[in-house]
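Sorry to interrupt, but I need a hand with the structure work. Go ahead and set the record down below:
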Amino acid sequence: MTMRKLTPLLAAALAFAGVVGAAASPQAQTAARRQYVTEGQCAGTPATTVRMAPNYCLGLIWQGAGADGPLMPRGLMQLADGDWLVTDLGAWSAGRGAVWRLSVGSDGAASWRRLARGLSMPHTVARGPDGRIYVSEMNRILTLDPDAADPAASVRTVIGGLPDNQLHDNRHPLSSFVFDGNGDLLVNVGAPTDRCVDPSGKPLIDASGACIDSAATAQVRRHAYLGRGRWSEDSTVFASGLRNSIALVRHPSGTILQGENSVDLTTPDHPYDEINVLRQGGDYGWPYCVDLATPLPRWSAAQSRCSQRASPVALLPPHAAPLDLIYYEGAMFPELRGRLLMTWHGYRRAGGRIVAAETDGQGVPLVDRGGRYAIYPRGSLAYPAGAPSIRGKVLTPGWNRIADRQPQGAPVVMAVARDGSIWVTDDKNRAILRIARP
């Protein structure tokens, strides 16, 4: 009996009972203890018990417990034949990532084919202006052909030499990218530290007093498109002062949005994460400023110059950890068309949510002043008085942990399927889920 021949619900139940996956890795064994229980149907898929906004349900496509399939699913993209590409972080160490192809049968059973392995923390997967498939690793952008007889042999480096950040407690080494309207690649180069300070808390500065990491990291870089699947290895700085730009999206109008995972202070209610409109040459404050214009500890007001730095268009809850932004244009949810969907991956009380924000004609989120944000297991907290907060609704208000029923969600990447449903990866719980109509 193998995982690829079981329905998601049966496979999860057997794995949990120890019938399959006996030789699973520690990551897989951990995932097996975080199973989603399913009850009834969500538009043809087993429905999880996650409480959703009215007229939405969350179905379970697949949850891994054995050796088959990704250990930490991250990126997600549907292919023309209905299959899906899924990037697999593998582990927070180099060389253990992969790219998988997921097929879902008419009976709901998932089958996996590994297309490439030995990758270093792959994340984004997207189709380029030339129609080819592109994937980001920690230190490069590659292309591969999922339909080749040997997809692994088709892997080719497109942009190499991206900073190979050291792993540490506050790691943000992953690369991500988005294509601009002219085909240029806008590539995230995350900050290698949390606040650019040493273990004693002393700022790490260069001769001018600036953070030593600001010159080459904490940026979004622009690589010019040369045509025919080629991009310039050299780059220019598009925007700086950005600790972590894993979440990037381009609106058809040309607006570039970024979701900022702010610094990891230990306080649960500070600092706030952000949504930024990125503009050429903009400086967005890291490591000097957080929130709207609050200097970080250890950096002086003179160093911070917070009033001179670009302000976020909206604050998000503290430690929400936005990891993906997409504009919804599907058919299943007409009420969501044009809205900005975002995943809040954070494990703290504001995380574990998918949110749909209202936007203007340029794709910029509409805001309220002040407002409140929900926390688990119940209740809400206020944003700072007068601060801009996104206007919208939470699609997954009940994705908190409930013993023996569901884990707290850890949504990473979303993709809109051809039928308009919204597929989501959950890396901590090793799952692929689908938002649909009940």
Remarks:
- Residues 8-17 form the longest helix (10 residues).
- The CA atoms of residues 328 and 335 lie 10 Å apart.
- The first strand starts at residue 38 and ends at 42.
